[in-house]
Design brief:
two-stranded antiparallel ribbon; 2 strands; DinB/YfiT-like; mainly alpha; DinB family protein; DinB-like
Amino acid sequence: MPIVPDVKDWTWVLSRPCPECGFDAAATAYEAVPALIREAAVRFATVLDRAEVRVRPDESTWSALEYVAHVRDVCRMSDTRLGLILAGASDGEPPRFPNWDQDATAVADRYNEQDPARVAAELAEAAERAARSFESVPPERRGLRGARSDGAEFTVESFARYILHDLVHHVHDVRA
């Protein structure tokens, strides 16, 4: 059984393959990220055709619909955060992202009660927007930095790969 790195230290995802989903950020070119975001969105759309889309495998695991709604919101959030990084902070420090509690959002937005067809359409739109945003960043701007509210810093490049890992990992989670 593989040893899962400490999830509080997110940087492991960028330096070695994920022991669960196999994604290798270090071997993924930035230029490949947009296409891989689009590919993940297509794979998630097929998951929403399943009859058991709202069924949770156990009490602590989201249903397929909840995962896809989460991924839609990850794409939306990544586009917003990328915009913040590119805009920069006026004080010269990396812009800070507000905290996002994904579990609280899933409950508050009632992910498991949402219409699967609408979630699929919204994911397609959000993934395409995120993919285009990452595509539009010229190489000389990919070193710009941003920071989460917990102080973890990203560059545009590391943020792109981090977000892509989230999508690929959830494709693995729902067996898409």
